[in-house]
Amino acid sequence: MRTFATRRNADGGFSLVELLVTMVIIAILVGIGIPIFLNQRTKAADTATRSDAVNLGLAIHTENEPIPVVKVERRTDGYYIDDKFAMPASKGVQLVTFTTTGLHWCIQLSHPQGAVAKSPGIRYDSERGLEDGLACG
After folding, report:
1. What is the pTM (predicted TM-score) of this model?
2. Residues 27-79: pLDDT tens digits?
3. What is the largest distance, in Å, between two alpha-carbon atoms of the chain?
4. Which of 22, 46, 103, 133 can bridge 114 by disulfide, Cβ–Cβ 3.0-4.6 Å?
5. Which residues pair with 129 in a beta bridge?
6. Of 110, 103, 113, nearest in space to 135 by CA
7. TM spans, by residue (predicted)?
8. CB-based contacts of 37, cutoff 8 Å, min separation 6
9. At a CB cut-off of 8 Å and minimum separation 6, what does 114 contact?
10. Burial of 118 (0-12, 13-18, 19+ CB in 10 A)
11. More confident residue, 4 or 104
């Protein structure tokens, strides 16, 4: 007959089946979680690009009142309109092009990790506003 002391010593750890079941559950959860996480990063990159496009477009529109804007560029610390600091830039967002004809202008931004913001990018046009997946010109 087994006593309580011998039963306690025989039950010292987890069985192989319990460990395998736990590992399978963790693998399933990781398999579900990683694609969701990667999709959120892509959406965040697109949102950052849209945000920069709208804010930079509004800044250009504000600066465009007395005379047309001549130059828009992205430097390490942010965006510059006619060599004056306009706003900080979101991490990873790139200024692809800025075109101007008279009072009409267009900026195009992209982000290498975005889905929509990859190529050709997201543009903000002085006449049509924000548009996804279109190039200036």
Report:
1. 0.73
2. 999 999 998 888 898 899 999 999 999 999 988 888 766 667 788 999 998 99
3. 99
4. 46
5. 125
6. 110
7. 12-38
8. none
9. 42, 45, 46, 48, 49
10. middle
11. 104
